[in-house]
UniProtKB/TrEMBL annotation:
<comment type="similarity">
    <text>Belongs to the RRP4 family.</text>
</comment>
<dbReference type="GO" id="GO:0003723">
    <property type="term" value="F:RNA binding"/>
</dbReference>
<dbReference type="GO" id="GO:0000467">
    <property type="term" value="P:exonucleolytic trimming to generate mature 3'-end of 5.8S rRNA from tricistronic rRNA transcript (SSU-rRNA, 5.8S rRNA, LSU-rRNA)"/>
</dbReference>
<dbReference type="InterPro" id="IPR026699">
    <property type="entry name" value="Exosome_RNA_bind1/RRP40/RRP4"/>
</dbReference>
<dbReference type="GO" id="GO:0071034">
    <property type="term" value="P:CUT catabolic process"/>
</dbReference>
<dbReference type="Pfam" id="PF15985">
    <property type="entry name" value="KH_6"/>
</dbReference>
<dbReference type="Pfam" id="PF21266">
    <property type="entry name" value="S1_RRP4"/>
</dbReference>
<dbReference type="InterPro" id="IPR048565">
    <property type="entry name" value="S1_RRP4"/>
</dbReference>
<feature type="domain" description="S1 motif">
    <location>
        <begin position="88"/>
        <end position="166"/>
    </location>
</feature>
<dbReference type="GO" id="GO:0071038">
    <property type="term" value="P:TRAMP-dependent tRNA surveillance pathway"/>
</dbReference>
<protein>
    <recommendedName>
        <fullName>S1 motif domain-containing protein</fullName>
    </recommendedName>
</protein>
<dbReference type="InterPro" id="IPR025721">
    <property type="entry name" value="Exosome_cplx_N_dom"/>
</dbReference>
<keyword id="KW-0539">Nucleus</keyword>
<dbReference type="GO" id="GO:0000176">
    <property type="term" value="C:nuclear exosome (RNase complex)"/>
</dbReference>
<dbReference type="GO" id="GO:0071035">
    <property type="term" value="P:nuclear polyadenylation-dependent rRNA catabolic process"/>
</dbReference>
<dbReference type="InterPro" id="IPR004088">
    <property type="entry name" value="KH_dom_type_1"/>
</dbReference>
<keyword id="KW-0694">RNA-binding</keyword>
Amino acid sequence: MGFRSDGSVLAVESCRAVLAEAPSPFQDSGFVCVGDRIETDVSEGFLRGHGTYVIDGVLYASVCGLKERVNKLISVRPLKQRYAAEIGDVVVGRVTEVAGKRWRVDLKSRQDAALMLSAVNLPGGIQRRRTMEDELNMRLVFEEGDLISAEVQSLHADGQINLQTRSSKYGRLVGGQLVEVPATLIKRQKFHFHHLEDLGVDMIVGCNGGVWVGPHDAHKSADTQDGGHGREEAVLVMPTMPSFTPQQRGKAARVANAVRVLAILYLPVHSASIQDTCQAAMQLDLGAADMLKLPFIQHLAEQEVQRRQQDEMQAD
């Protein structure tokens, strides 16, 4: 991250401490630490959920996180954990194995996900039954080490995750870079595919914490904002790497570093926060590399504290 001295590390920790003391919507009984007592209504009773334990009829938190209650069920959602998939999630992962009629994909979850041969569009968008020849040519679609975007299709009781890439907006990702952040920082939203028009950058914010950033490819006809309904065929095999200018790659690097800065400060990562971070850097006339230096991180932390204080004053 560009920090080589203990002083810089301590300075970053001080920025996090300042943010922790700032007004937050998670204050006032929403956040609990390990061993904290969770108040319950004795007359109504309660059901112990994940992240809690009971001693002598009293409920305590076993992890640090946010308290959640659904009817009588009380649980604590950890602030840091491996990715827990939900059906419909957009994810960014890396192919680790090609075997049988499936690809294994690393999503930084408890186990690798499975992408079945029947759950991908064949090159050219052909719709037919998969044959032995298709199975032999699976590496023409995806091979080990490929970075792909996909959607969680189904979940099994044993934790197995099944993916699908039948839409034209999914498939192999080339010409950009992957930034990995804690999955808990990603907000599930209606759209996870974004085109930052002002910067000329395409971005995929995966629910599993994988954020792919790359220069906008004008030759792509699929509009990821509307789900790719503008084209029928899916082009999963890209024979050549797209060529981009240094200026285009510099803009993509600026967006990628904005994601890294938000992760350093443990701030939510979504399209609006990323664009605000880029805008703050451009107002200070900073380059992409300068965004990872301590002065900008401190500036962003102070800006976030001011925003929270203003929101609290408006709420009052």
